[in-house]
Amino acid sequence: MDVLDIALILFALAVLAGCIDTIAGGGGLITIPALLGVGLTPLESLATNKAQAVFGSGSATLHLLRKGLIDLREARLAILLTGLGAALGTLLVQQLDGAALQQLIPLLLIGFALYFLVSPRVSDLDAQQRLSTRAFAWTVGLGVGFYDGFFGPGTGTFFAMGYVALLGYNIRRATAQTKLLNFASNLTALFVFVIADQVVWLLAAVMAVGQLIGAWIGSHLVWKHGMALIRPLLVSVSILISLKLFWDHCNGT
């Protein structure tokens, strides 16, 4: 497979991932295995994934800000603690042995594929407020931010579920605030990866264009139809690619 073929495949997958991330979160379940599949190391894959994902989350955040759906003042502490968590997670993942990380990623992918398969829809969760915004920032913001810096796929879903279940937000408002925190964690993690010189910029640039297109498409889809389409697709792709990674590892390829 030549460079052009690789670029076209990654571009197409980034479009799909950008669309999925905008609607439901979890696009990294597609882009991370794809980057591993073209020969990047685990750290390069995580770093390059952050470099391309920041364009999708950033464009979605800007769109929702223009629509007046994001309250920046209310989210200030959550933004700060999400960024702190992402930085800590990114620093930790860089300390792991490369071979151990190569084995860990497929396990995480399969685990979160199963999570998406059995989890309830965000819109079905209890909307009663159970935490203050400050407590939410210190728990969900810091914790999910750390997870996003360490690995990432499913971050948007965790944030959205937290906003609905713990703060009582409706699905539209929860999704908007989720994009803001996801962008904060992506940007912070990317900054740490850039300092460590782990980003493959050529691939990141190609995928960033795909992310922008996918985010635009996703923002125009009806939410409930998008979930019905994305859940089986997300589960199938992530499990199949993860099994391939296991097979390659067992056969020493």
TrEMBL record:
Spans through the membrane: 6-36, 75-93, 99-119, 153-171, 183-209, 229-247
Main location: membrane
Domain of life: Bacteria
Localization of this protein: Cell membrane
GO CC entries: plasma membrane
InterPro entries assigned: TM_pro_TauE-like (IPR002781), TSUP (IPR052017)
Positions in coiled-coil regions: none
Stated family: Belongs to the 4-toluene sulfonate uptake permease (TSUP) (TC 2.A.102) family.
Protein name: Probable membrane transporter protein
Source organism of this protein record: Thiocapsa imhoffii
Lineage: Bacteria, Pseudomonadati, Pseudomonadota, Gammaproteobacteria, Chromatiales
